[in-house]
Write a structure and sequence with these properties.
The protein is an all-alpha fold and 61 residues long. It has three helices and no strands.
């Protein structure tokens, strides 16, 4: 639990710093793998990152 909340804290900091950067997808997959979960499992961290990743998909050429 402590490891997961620490990862979520780092993700929130990265989220604020990157503001919708493409690397958020990589951070999400990396954090999920570090937590021993599937990259796109419906967890709180993926839900947090779904919102900023949506504009990226829309703005893709």
């Amino acid at each position: 639990m402590l490891k997961g909340s620490l990862t979520l804290g780092l993700l929130r900091i990265a989220l604020v710093m990157l503001k919708g950067s493409l690397t958020l997808g990589l951070l999400r997959m990396l954090s999920m793998l570090l937590q021993g979960k599937q990259p796109f499992a419906p967890t709180q961290s993926t839900q947090l990152l779904e919102i900023p990743s949506a504009p990226i998909l829309r703005s893709a050429p």
